[in-house]
Amino acid sequence: MCGIAGWVDYERDLTLERDVLQTMTATMKLRGPDDEGGWLAPRAGLGHRRLAIIDLEGGRQPMIADEGGAPVAVLIYTGEVYNFRELRGELEARGHRFKTHSDTEVVLRAYLEWGAGFPRRLNGMFAFALWDVRAEELLLVRDRLGIKPLFYQQIGSAVLFGSEPKAILANPLASPVVDVGGLRELLAFVKTPGAAVFRDMREVRPGHVVHVRRDGISERRYWALEARPHEDDLQATIRTVRGLLEDTVARQLISDVPLCSLLSGGLDSSAVTALAQRALRAEGAGPVRSFSVEFAGHAEHFTPDALRSTQDTPYVAEVARHVGSDHAGIVLSAAQLADPEVRAAVLRARDVPIAFGDMDASLYLLFRAIRERSTVALSGESADEVFGGYLWFHDPETVAAETFPWIAMRRKIRGASAASQLLAPALLAQIDLPGYVAARYREALAEVPPLPGEDGAERRMREISYLHLTRFLPILLDRKDRMSMATGLEVRVPFCDHRLVEYVFNAPWSMKTFDGREKSLLRAASEDLLPRSVLDRRKSPYPSTQDPAYSERLRGQLAGLLARKDAPVLPLLDMARARAVASESGGAVDEILRSSMHQVLLLNDWLTRYRIDLAL
């Protein structure tokens, strides 16, 4: 896993801009702490920071393909291609000769052999930039589900790009301007494909290739979810799901550095951990390392609610014993979760102030602790989107709502969004979040591929699945990527294998819930791997602390912020409401209001540290 940055300009000699390219590349240091490289030509500059995972000695980048002693293509790449060994064999049979054992060189050679359509042949998570020296053309490519991020911005004759916005913003041509559209995207909790918070910046859409040529920029889709008839019966479907999972997990165990799994005690992460343990044992290796997050005092503070009915810790311990993993729990305190330095690290990782509250802080701290012992981690992320695991998939009122299901469920349970709690009413009226969400919902719904003859209920559940895979999952993948790469940890997501996603997307909803539960197919495919208690456990989302001390710390920090007359966030706030919240004392604060306090603190840090120009 790595970080990339670069610059293409058809009217400027970029060989004179080495210092700027190095500055852009340096912003990716946390994503790639092991090595740095750069390549410059008159029209293109490519920078790379490397986190060495495969072929530690031979995988340096930028990687150059030569013909007759002259460069013909240059690649900077982040991610992993899990079928690179098969592709290498195919390319060798076609006459290609390899100098390294890395998947990076396979990607480079695949382009030379198959041209711009080659991403369809790749199985993995990736984002890369490839400069064709002969054609003076740049390709920006992103994996099918959008696991790895990639941003770009055209400014006059220049096109800047990077794994994260900070790489682009480090170029003096770029400015951190955020207009009404960007603020809407920031606050709406809907990931609009291609949109970025910063004005004029774009994100390469999942499953797309962006072509940058002298005559302009164009975008081409190489993959999308398609509706197909599902021909397999239930037992064949369960066997296929199991086979795909076994193959995917085995492929994603390939690593030349220490590897582990993230274990929450839920069905998803437990299945991945068990499959990883089996695969390692079959190779004479193991046991698999596993890690979980725990909160100091959580047992005494935990109160079941509509989303989290059980604690993770007892289930984590049972799974670790059952599969025989080498397990460690990472215990976090309220002081750590509310630490302003941790909040600053989260903001630097994200570049934008997303209101995940303590869940971002805990994920960052968990990954930082894991990185001391492992460099690669397997995650159960995306199983809920693929198999239909969330509570709102199974709530008729939410399913029928004419908006995104996760937003409908939040309204039903919490009654409001974090953004609506402490921001000024005039600002909320100006940005009109309900109108923005409604427009994005209509756009997303219009994309859903139809299956002729599908009845109303099945058609609606296909829509719900599509909304999650294209609008909700990218939010979580982005979060996991940013928090992990900020600590130099590569997180792999087996449930995002596009073969599995395509297959399960087209399984009927009646089959996905054949036992009357959520994630029926995954449960059946994992039945021989896990304890009965875990198989029967109700879905519980990523944990959030319930320690009142965390809320009290946030209140104190909010009060301190409100007392500062020069804080840039103050004009954006409902000051009376904010002062009332900050002055309260004692008892827990509900999760929405707590997230609101956290977001206000983040917003102020963002406006200050990034010198944001709010063009409202």
From TrEMBL:
- Report which reactions are catalysed by this protein: L-aspartate + L-glutamine + ATP + H2O = L-asparagine + L-glutamate + AMP + diphosphate + H(+)
Q: ATP-binding: is it a keyword of this entry?
A: yes
Q: What is its EC number?
A: 6.3.5.4
Keywords, sorted A to Z: ATP-binding, Glutamine amidotransferase, Ligase, Nucleotide-binding
Q: In which pathway does it act?
A: Amino-acid biosynthesis; L-asparagine biosynthesis; L-asparagine from L-aspartate (L-Gln route): step 1/1
Pfam families named in the record: Asn_synthase (PF00733), GATase_7 (PF13537)
Q: Which domain of life is it from?
A: Bacteria
Q: Name one GO molecular function term.
A: asparagine synthase (glutamine-hydrolyzing) activity
Positions of the Glutamine amidotransferase type-2 domain: 2-215
Keyword check for Calcium, yes or no: no
Which family is this protein grouped under? Belongs to the asparagine synthetase family.
Q: What is the protein named?
A: asparagine synthase (glutamine-hydrolyzing)
